[in-house]
Fold each of these.
Amino acid sequence: MRATVMHAAGDVRVEDVPDAKIEQPNDAVIRITRACICGSDLWPYKSLDPAEGARIMGHEAIGVVEEIGGDVTNLRKGDLVVMPFASSDGTCEFCRDGLQTECVHRGFFGVGAEGFGGAQAEALRIPNADGTLYVLAADSDEALMPSLLTLADVMGTGHHAAVASNVEPGKSVAVVGDGAVGLCGVIAAKRLGAEQIIVLGRHADRTDLARELGATDVVAERGEEAVARVRELTGGFGAHSVLECVGLDASTQTAVEVARPGGAVGRVGVPQEETMAGGRGSFYANVTIAGGPAPVRAYIEELLPDILDGAIEPGRVFDRTVDLGGVPDGYRAMNEREALKVMVRP
Ligand SMILES: [Zn+2]
């Protein structure tokens, strides 16, 4: 089968790899019908050391179940499924608490040797298939596929940032980052009833889309100027809830500083440093720091009805579609900010 293999920073190739097949009785194999490139895929695209070994990329997909192992009970061949970015058993105490990304059998897709295979491919083996995959209605509307695909990561992740930062009706929210997760964070904040939603971003096409999705204000400044601007927009104190959707030191520092005293920061940008910026500031302002890998598997149930009835349209974050052969150029386009988020139809 063909799959997207990243060999080193900037070196993405579509290659023949061994076919995905059942290895454990709780596995399923899905044929990928939609996948996409994630902002977090750009971190290895910028920095992967060839010594770390080549990896099959991709952790977001919709697919059709092709094979199931002997212990799989919730799935049938032919089921249309959403594949969250992490595998989970669905039965351990963390899964039962709705925190599937801390499952005792957790594993991530598309991260190389320490995880499972990748979804930017023709097919993929899904460990713990019963707990991991979410079955969609077989007659799901083609036009909704982009939005349904966001349930695999970005919409659930934006929602997690909103939940972790305690977004509530009538309150103020700042969203740090205008990538796909930041934009989904805007959707999530609006959905949860926030009154003021300030998006911090510098790309006019993206912040324009943010306004269409519910942002009330745009702050294009960075650093201290951005902090001053957000405080000005929030009566001098900062936002009740801050969604950190980037993961860099500078963005984290800004996120902490735009939170009002007693507010909260929900971190979903994958941290690129071991220590967290803004630690001292968050202490003196009694700011709660929360977040982590989003349990998107738990959120599908809650978000799916709003996608089906058109209340939210997170699929609008996709602005380009490629076939498998077009994936390497898709990485280039996202890395150069020419594309916001690229959908893959293998
Ligand atoms: Zn579990």
Amino acid sequence: MPLSYPEPPLTDDVVILRPWELKDLPVLEEASCDEYVSLVEQLPVPFDARRGQDWIARKHATLSGGDGCELAIAERESGDAIGGIGFVFRHVPGTAEAGYWIVERRRRQGFASCALEIFSRWALTSGGGVVRMQATVEPWNLASQRVLAKAGFLQEGRLRSYASWRGRREDVFMYSLLAEDLELTGVAGSRVTRTRPSSVDLGAAWEENASAFIAWARTPNHDSYWQFHRDVFLELLPPRGRRTLDLGCGEGRLSRDLKRLGHDIVGIDGSPTMVAAARDADAEIEVQLADAAALPFADGEFDLVVAFMSLQDIDDFAGAVRESARVLEAGGRLCLAIVHPLSSAGRFEGATADSVFTIAGSYLDHSYYADNVVRDGLEIDFVSAHRPLQDYTEALANAGLLIERLREPALPEYAITREHSRRWQRLPIFLHARALKP
Ligand SMILES: C[S@@+](CC[C@H](N)C(=O)[O-])C[C@H]1O[C@@H](n2cnc3c(N)ncnc32)[C@H](O)[C@@H]1O
């Protein structure tokens, strides 16, 4: 099928991608002042309207000549162009090379990611002959690498001395996206975007995300809890005893499961919305609004404390461990599950089972991360702290607890619902520990 402009124009909530028009000359003039964009886009410098019109005519000729497709990225609200996106075919049939740019004043606002995502999906699925969409990016251009990763592109490797910039040869990274990756990375169904804020009030962040979490946690089979994590964690627990505390119980799903298993269970959480939801779901379970680092219980009231996926979300996690030890009786246990520190330190570069895992910053330093996860129509921000493993083992030791078990459960085969989950059969996504108060 010959190439034609997408009709109706590609759009989402943020951008609309449409053919270039003469009314876009002012934004081209603006872009011509950007050294990098003007070079890559071969914009006239100094800019004048006549050469700007020629530039627009060349963009339309790309399509009519069957060489590719080039569009303006416009803001959906105003229709004003703020950048450009396109692909041109390379020598191997079916291979198309993508490029995109945004004017400086509108960068870092997510426009490029939105545009690349809908443009790539269209290019690979509209029958225009694109089988492989590729893009090259300079190692220093981290913003562009983030845009590609967010749109589901996989980094394939480094091409040495491939480009030339300011008279110097430069390496580039080669990225690609295939039609089958759209399902793998879930460009449509599932997506994780990680940012690293410099500081966060974790308690406030969880209250803010509470409604999203309640919907997330209560949708049947939606997350790892239902798929395997609960069952693997339950194997770590000692036989049920006198009284169990669920520390950071959230909307209460584990408390309810433990009650069914015969535990006399009490939950605490720092988020009023979570506590209300937990009480609402089972009025028989005692749930208190409390800071895990200042528990409203007497010494030795419990023989089991479970902290399931909560310590990485608690500001004073060492205080929470200390308080857990205090409210345990001698011989009691703290059982915890957290995001594995390896997983919070780095990320996979691609979606295939063997993709490379990279730690770009420091594993040893404390940091924060916010994972925006979109899956099957639900969206949530998981805001957490990364701490190296030693921070947790020291907190346990300083609280007088002895580690009995330290486990790194691999994703069981039955929990693989998407191909990209296989990556977590090579590296641990969660860490479990059981500690004894002697
Ligand atoms: C990922 S959720 C886990 C909830 C629950 N354990 C589950 O797995 O469904 C983390 C929970 O930790 C709670 N939390 C964060 N900081 C806290 C604090 N200082 N004290 C008590 N709970 C806290 C949050 O409100 C949130 O409910």
